[in-house]
Design brief:
Layout lengths: L10 H14 L7 E2 L13 H9 L3 E2 L4 E9 L5 E10 L8 E11 L7 E9 L9 E10 L2 E10 L5 E10 L17 E3 L20 E8 L12 H15 L4 E10 L4 E9 L4 H8 L9 H5 L3 H14 L8 E6 L10 H6 L7 E6 L11 H8 L3 E5 L2 H20 L11
Parallel strand pairs: 11-12, 11-14, 14-15, 15-16
Antiparallel strand pairs: 1-6, 2-9, 3-4, 4-7, 5-6, 5-8, 7-10, 8-9, 12-13
C-alpha cells in the first residue's frame, strides 16, 4: 500500500491501509509458496484459477491495473521482482472482502517447472461513495534468468483481474564474477525474516582459521530518523552475512552499537558462527524516537562514547583478532576524537577496515570519525552504495587479511558467499 492512497479523509480507508500493511510485511507484500497436494505432486488450484492461468487471458471483471516490476538486485544479493496493482476503492465498497492473488512464475527453458505463489488480503468494510484507488504491491525473489508470469486476483464475488508478462534478471558483464545468494532460474517467496540463522559453512583447512571482529553501527542513513528503514537494515545485515559465509573465518566476534543512543546493543565473543536471531532480538530494543536526558546534558557525549568504544574494541580486547572491521553509516560527532585516544590506538597491529554504508556518497564525501581513525591506523575504507559493493569490497578485504596473516593474497571471489 502506498501512502498517497491514504490521504483521503475517511477512517475506513485508513483501516484498509492498516489491513493491507499488516498483511504485507515490510518492505512490500510477500508471496506465499503454494505447496503441492502431496510430496512430489502438483499444486492444487481451484479449477477456475487454473483455467485462467493456463489460458493466459487478460480479464477485468474486477477492474485493476497491473504494472510489472523489473527484477533488481538487492543488498541480500538476490533479484527482487513483483508488481504494482491499483484497484478503484469503489470496486471494493460494501461489507468485508477478501482479495486473493494467485500466480505462477515459469523459468524460460523449463516450462514444466512453474512455481505457484499466493497472497491473501483482508479488506474492511468500505463506504459506497469511496473515491480514489487502493495501491497494492507484491514481491518475490528470482535468480538470474528469464521468466514468464501469469497472474490473477479475485474477490469473494469471484470477480477476476488477470494479466501476464515476461521479465529477465541479469547481471551486467562487469559483475559476472559476483556470487549471488540465489541460484539461476530459482523462484522463491520474498524473505521476510532478515535475522534467520545462516546454514553451517564448511571452513577451509588451508593455513589455519581466521578470527575477525566486526563492529557495526546499526543506525539509519539519516541520523535524525526515528526509524530504521528496511533498506538500511538489509544492507547492514548483508554485510554481516557476507562475512559469516566466508570459509576462511572460523571465529567471529560481533559488536552492535547505535550511535544515537550511545550504547552497545549486542556483543558476541569468539563464536564459531554469528548468532543472527540473538542479534535481531537485541536490536528490537533500539528506540530511535526518544533521547536519553543524560545525553543532552553531556556536551561531548557522542565523541566520548565513540572514543571509549574504539579504544575498547581496537586496543583493550582480550582475544586479539586477525582483523577488525567496522561497518555502518557515517558517524557524525560534534568534536573529533581526542588526540589522546588516537595515541592510545597507535600500537594496534591488526589490519583495520571500514565498510562505510553510504547511499549518496556525492552528498557526503568527507570522512567521518570512524573513517578518520581507520585512516590514522593506515587501514582501508570502502564505500557501500550498491549491492555489488558488498561483494567486491569483502573480496578485497579477505584477500588483504589472508595476506597479512599468511603472506599471500590468493582468495577465490566465491569465498564471500
Amino acid at each position: 500500500m502506498r501512502n498517497s492512497s491514504m490521504r483521503l479523509n475517511r477512517s475506513n480507508l485508513a483501516a484498509l491501509a492498516a489491513c493491507i500493511l499488516a498483511a504485507s510485511g515490510a518492505p512490500a507484500p510477500a508471496q506465499e509458496l503454494m505447496p503441492a497436494s502431496y510430496p512430489g505432486g502438483t499444486v492444487r488450484l481451484f479449477t477456475s484459477d487454473a483455467a485462467i492461468l493456463e489460458a493466459q487471458e487478460t480479464r477485468k471483471d474486477l477492474p485493476c491495473n497491473v504494472t510489472p516490476i523489473k527484477p533488481s538486485l538487492g543488498f541480500d544479493l538476490k533479484f527482487h521482482s513483483g508488481y504494482d496493482v491499483t484497484v478503484p476503492l469503489k470496486e471494493l465498497a460494501g461489507s468485508e472482502n477478501l482479495l486473493t492473488m494467485v500466480f505462477k512464475v515459469t523459468p524460460a527453458g523449463h516450462p514444466d517447472e512453474p512455481v505457484y505463489l499466493s497472497q491473501h488480503i483482508n479488506v474492511p468494510a468500505i463506504e459506497e461513495n469511496a473515491g480514489g484507488p487502493a495501491y497494492l504491491q507484491g514481491t518475490f525473489d528470482v535468480g538470474e534468468g528469464k521468466y514468464h508470469i501469469d497472474w490473477l486476483m479475485r474477490d469473494r464475488a469471484e470477480r477476476v483481474c488477470s494479466s501476464n508478462w515476461d521479465v529477465e534478471a541479469s547481471l551486467p558483464s562487469k559483475d559476472r564474477q559476483m556470487a549471488l545468494d540465489i541460484a539461476p532460474n530459482l523462484i522463491l517467496p520474498f524473505d521476510t525474516q532478515p535475522f534467520k540463522q545462516e546454514p553451517p559453512v564448511e571452513r577451509t583447512q588451508n593455513d589455519g582459521p581466521l578470527n575477525v571482529k566486526v563492529v557495526v553501527n546499526f543506525a539509519p542513513q539519516d541520523a535524525a530518523s526515528a526509524t530504521m528503514q528496511p533498506l538500511d537494515l538489509n544492507a547492514l545485515i548483508s554485510i554481516l552475512r557476507n562475512i559469516a559465509r566466508d570459509p576462511h573465518i572460523a571465529k567471529f566476534s560481533v559488536v552492535a552499537f547505535n550511535m544515537q543512543e550511545q550504547r552497545v546493543i549486542y556483543r558476541q565473543d569468539a563464536a564459531s558462527q554469528i548468532d543472527f536471531p540473538a542479534l535481531g532480538k537485541a536490536l528490537s530494543s533500539v528506540n530511535l524516537g526518544t533521547i536519553d536526558l543524560k545525553h543532552l546534558t553531556q556536551k561531548h557525549g557522542d565523541a566520548e562514547f565513540l572514543a571509549g568504544l574504539m579504544t575498547q574494541e581496537l586496543r583493550d580486547a582480550k582475544d586479539r583478532p586477525d582483523a577488525i572491521i567496522f561497518a555502518g553509516p557515517k558517524v557524525t560527532v560534534q568534536d573529533s576524537l581526542p588526540v589522546e585516544t588516537l595515541k592510545l590506538l597507535s600500537d594496534v597491529k591488526e589490519p583495520v577496515f571500514y565498510m562505510n554504508y553510504n547511499l549518496n556518497p556525492q552528498v557526503n564525501p568527507w570522512r567521518d570519525a570512524i573513517g578518520n581513525t581507520v585512516h590514522y591506523l593506515k587501514g582501508m575504507e570502502y564505500t557501500i552504495s550498491r549491492p555489488r559493493d558488498v561483494f567486491f569490497s569483502w573480496t578485497d578485504i579477505i584477500g588483504r587479511i589472508v595476506k597479512s596473516k599468511f603472506g599471500r593474497a590468493t582468495v577465490s571471489n566465491a569465498s564471500s558467499q
